[in-house]
Amino acid sequence: MTQLTCFKAYDIRGQLGTELNEDIAYRIARAFARFLKPRRIVLGGDVRKTSPELKAALANGLRDEGVDVLDLGLAGTEEVYFATFHLEVDGGIEVTASHNPIDYNGFKLVREGSRPISADTGLADIRQTAEEMNIELQDGRDPSVPDSARGQYEQVDTRKAFVEHLMGYIEPDKFTPLKLVVNAGNGAAGPVIDAIEQAFKDKQIPVTFIKICHEPDGTFPNGIPNPILIENRETTSKAVLEHGADMGIAWDGDFDRCFLFDEQGRFIEGYYIVGLLAEAFLKKEPGAAIIHDPRLVWNTVEQVEENGGRAVQTKAGHAFIKERMRKEDAAYGGEMSAHHYFRNFAYCDSGMIPWLLVAELLCRKGGPMSEMVGERIAAYPSSGEINLKVNDAPAVLKSIEQQYAKDALDVDYTDGVSICFADWRFNLRASNTEPVIRLNVESRGDFDLMERETQRLLEAIKAL
User: Fold this and answer.
1) Residues identified as active-site
2) Among 92, 96, 221, 279, which is disulfide-ready with 42 (CB 3.0 to 4.6 Å)?
């Protein structure tokens, strides 16, 4: 039995040649089909040079199991999510390694209704079946499967319907003239931006798009698109200043996450975007439930409550956020890691819906982005997520809790440990996949206090 190391907690990712190749992709597709027993599956792929051949291997594996394949061509992850629920098929697979190095690729899998397939909801079963499979392929196919038993293959285009769906989140008459820098990072976002630009023209929405690193290019001439890395933000920041733009937007390779910059070219931490999106939704749906994670909370809760909504906290991670959204019938759920989930998007995350809503909110409020966000940062300054390598994460968490809990107003265990005082709070949690703990600290309007307590915590952790 071949052990497959490309299976992770939430998706499949591996180094090309050693962990992932066409043969492995074929086996994964057949195992996926045996697990899900679908009739029709949609496939999409990002711009990586190996994505078309891996997608073809997946298509062969699915078809050899009698499954009909609908190929979207070049597509972002959320286009697979959209096509899965829009076409009412039985599942979907996106070929992508998102922001991983250039010699990596992988797959994101969903079932009917675009529900995620993770380690505890089928991925482990798919892995076991794929590992046990022993098939000698000829020309990428199983020669024992007759043509009459194979599924059909069809190329489909859902982009027009996808963009129409996106446009449903905004009100065109609320837009005032706006200039946006859009940085696709040479990933899959470029063609969708072009389609949105045309939709804006058709509806006479006065938005100018300034496109940088726009053309899809699997060699990534401007580096792997991963705006969460500080060194990858300068291109967008400079373009915003150079063109006098109102906002900058940058995406990762499969554009399921977007990152925003104000008109001064400053990167906006994902935490404050959650509050903005909560406000944007509550203007359209008063009283709605908004889901958030426990890492940083005060700003989100205040913005939700001030706008008449109901803030609901749950554990970080897409599986937990989506489950709680369904339970609460929540309109929106957000994580500070730039993953944003939407009820009307089958509870899936999108990198296109957030910037559309923030752009509209910017026009509604009438002031500059820096002012809109700056008020929130001043009200609740935060450390951003600090990752620390440790040998024994549970022991570190327990020791820090013992040091701080005795003087706290509240201790919460939703995700790791959150310890709250009158004017500041912190969350400390362990990674599920690596020997790392993640620290987030925030205060009520006191930047110096936040900085001091962050340093104290870091020293206490290092002492352990």
Assistant:
1) 98
2) 92
